[in-house]
Design a protein that fits this description.
The structure is a single chain. It contains 18 helices and 17 strands. With about 450 residues, it is an alpha+beta fold. It has four domains: about 170 residues, Ribonuclease H-like superfamily/Ribonuclease H (Nucleotidyltransferase, domain 5); about 90 residues, GIY-YIG endonuclease (3-Layer(aba) Sandwich), CATH 3.40.1440; about 90 residues, no CATH class; about 70 residues, no CATH class. Strands 3-2-1-4-5 form a five-stranded mixed sheet. It has a five-stranded antiparallel sheet with strand order 16-15-14-13-17. Strand 6 and strand 7 form a beta hairpin. The radius of gyration is 27 Å and the shape is globular.
Length: about 450
C-alpha cells in the first residue's frame, strides 16, 4: 500500500476574510509522514494593494508582489503538486478557504481531504497553554528564520507535523482525523468514506435515500460534505436510523444558505421524509406568542418552542435566536406604543414606557386593539415587494429570490449581467414555488443576520 502524501501549506494574505481578501504568498512542502519529498514557494500578485498593517506583520510590500505571478498563473502547478495529497495546515480552515476561493474564481472545483495541526496538537500534546504556531515553535524550540512568511511558517509546521506523527499510530489515528472522527463501521452499508469525501463543500440540500429509492431524510447545509460527516460522527437515535436505512446520498447545490433553507422546507413538505421531524423546524427555537392575562389584557411574550408552550400557542413569529426575538419585541414596543407591562421576554430591560400613560390608567379596548393591529401586520412580514440578490452556484452566477404581495414567490438563477437588465427580466428567471408560511419566516430570519443585496420593487 503506497504511503500517504501530505501537502503542508501556509499562505500570507491581504487580510482575514477569504471572500474579500487575496493571497500574497503561498508555500507547499510535500511530505510522506517521515521526510520531505519536495517544496514550492512563490509570492503572488493579489491584484490589489496590501494594507500597511499586513506589511508590518509579514514584511511583504506592494513592490515585492508587483512582478510576482497572479494566482491563475500558478494554479495548474499547485494542482499538480497537491495531486493525491492530504491538505495540512495550522488552522487549516483559513488556508483552505482562501485557496478554494481562488480556484472557484477560475471556475475550478478544488477539494481535498484535510488535517489541522492545531487540532492534532491538542490531541498529541494536551495541557499546553496555547496552540498557536508561535507558541508551539517556542515550546518545541523550532528554528524559524522569518515568521509570517509562507515558506518559513510551512517549514515550521513540517517540524511540528513530524512531532505529531511520532505521537500517533500513523495508519490509524491520523486516518480517523482525516475522516473527521468517523470509522468505516459507523457508516451505512453501501456508503463509503470515499463517497463522503467526494461530496461538495458548498451550500445546498442533500438527500438520504433507502433501498427502495425513497428519500428518508432531507437536510440543508452551507457545506454539504461537512454536514453529512457530522451525521455519522456521533451515535444518536437519528444516526442509528440513518445507519439502518440509508443506501445512497444525493444533493442539489443552491449557491447560498437562504435558498438551501427555502428548498429544504419545500422538499420536506413535498416528500414527507420518514426520519425528518414534524414540519415544525427545529431551527426556530423561540416564538412570539399572543395570550390574554388574568385582567383580560392581550399580551405579547417570547417563549421557547417547548411542547408545553406550543400546546395552546398563538404564534405570531418565530426566531433563530432569543436575541432576535428580544430585538423584534423592542421594535414593536416602540413602533406601536405598546405598554411594557403587557410584554415579556427573558433579558428584556424595562425602558421608557411608550404607551402614552395607558399603563397608569389602563384602557383595555385601546391596548387590545393595538395588539390586534400588530397581529394583523405580522401575518404579512414584508410591507413592500423586493428581490434578494445573493451568491449563485458558480462563478459569475447570481441567485434571486422574489417576495411579492407580502409573500415568498420563488427563486432562480441568472448571470451577473442579467441582474442589471431590470426587474421584469429578473422575474422571468424565478421558478414559482408552492408557498408555505414558514418560508416568509425563513427569509425574515435570514435577513436579520445576513445582508444580501435587495432590489425594492
Amino acid at each position: 500500500m503506497p504511503k500517504r502524501k501530505y501537502a503542508i501549506v501556509d499562505i500570507e494574505t491581504t487580510g482575514g476574510m477569504y471572500k474579500r481578501d487575496k493571497i500574497t504568498e503561498i508555500a507547499i512542502v510535500l511530505h510522506d509522514g517521515a521526510k520531505v519529498l519536495s517544496q514550492f514557494s512563490t509570492l503572488i500578485n493579489p491584484e490589489r494593494s496590501i494594507p500597511p498593517e499586513i506589511t508590518r506583520i509579514t514584511g511583504i510590500t506592494n513592490a515585492m508582489v508587483q512582478e510576482a505571478p497572479k494566482f491563475y498563473e500558478v494554479a495548474k502547478e499547485l494542482v499538480e503538486i497537491m495531486d493525491g495529497a492530504i491538505f495540512v495546515a495550522h488552522n487549516v480552515r483559513f488556508d483552505y478557504s482562501f485557496i478554494k476561493n481562488e480556484f472557484k474564481a477560475l471556475g475550478y472545483k478544488f477539494t481535498k481531504r484535510q488535517l489541522c495541526t492545531v487540532k492534532l496538537s491538542r490531541k498529541a500534546f494536551p495541557r499546553l497553554t496555547s496552540y498557536s504556531l508561535g507558541n508551539l515553535i517556542t515550546h518545541f524550540n523550532i528554528s524559524v528564520n522569518a515568521r509570517h512568511r509562507a515558506l518559513d511558517d510551512t517549514l515550521a509546521t513540517v517540524e511540528l507535523f513530524k512531532k505529531i506523527v511520532a505521537q500517533f499510530d500513523e495508519a490509524d489515528e491520523l486516518k480517523t482525523f482525516i475522516n473527521q472522527g468517523i470509522k468505516e463501521a459507523q457508516l451505512p452499508k453501501g456508503i463509503s468514506i470515499d463517497q463522503l469525501h467526494d461530496l461538495p463543500e458548498e451550500a445546498g440540500v442533500y438527500y438520504f435515500i433507502n433501498d427502495y429509492q425513497r428519500v428518508v431524510y432531507i437536510g440543508k447545509a452551507k457545506n454539504i460534505k461537512s454536514r453529512v460527516f457530522q451525521h455519522f460522527s456521533k451515535i444518536t437515535s437519528k444516526s442509528a436510523k440513518l445507519y439502518q436505512q440509508v443506501k445512497e446520498i444525493s444533493y442539489e447545490l443552491t449557491g447560498n444558505e437562504l435558498i438551501a433553507l427555502l428548498h429544504e422546507a419545500s422538499e420536506i413538505k413535498l416528500r414527507q421524509p420518514e426520519i425528518n421531524k414534524a414540519m415544525r423546524r427545529k431551527s426556530f427555537p423561540y416564538f412570539l406568542n399572543q395570550s390574554i392575562d388574568e385582567e383580560g389584557f392581550k399580551t405579547l411574550e417570547i417563549l421557547k418552542s417547548s411542547d408545553k408552550n406550543l400546546i395552546k400557542a398563538n404564534q405570531l413569529h418565530e426566531y433563530d435566536k432569543l436575541s432576535y426575538g428580544r430585538n423584534h419585541l423592542i421594535n414593536l414596543i416602540q413602533e406601536y406604543d405598546v405598554c411594557q407591562k403587557r410584554v415579556s421576554c427573558r433579558g428584556l430591560t424595562q425602558q421608557v414606557c411608550h404607551c402614552g400613560g395607558y399603563c397608569e390608567q389602563p384602557s383595555m379596548a385601546y391596548h387590545n386593539n393595538t395588539i390586534e393591529v400588530i397581529t394583523a401586520d405580522l401575518k404579512s412580514l414584508f410591507d413592500h415587494d423586493f428581490i434578494i440578490v445573493d451568491e449563485g452556484r458558480t462563478q459569475g452566477e447570481k441567485s434571486v429570490v422574489l417576495i411579492e404581495e407580502g409573500r415568498y414567490r420563488g427563486y432562480g438563477y441568472l448571470s451577473e449581467e442579467g441582474v442589471q437588465y431590470g426587474v421584469e427580466e429578473i422575474k422571468e428567471a424565478i421558478r414559482e414555488t408552492k408557498f408555505y408560511p414558514i418560508m416568509n419566516k425563513i427569509i425574515w430570519n435570514y435577513l436579520q443576520h445576513d445582508k444580501p443585496r435587495l432590489i425594492r420593487i
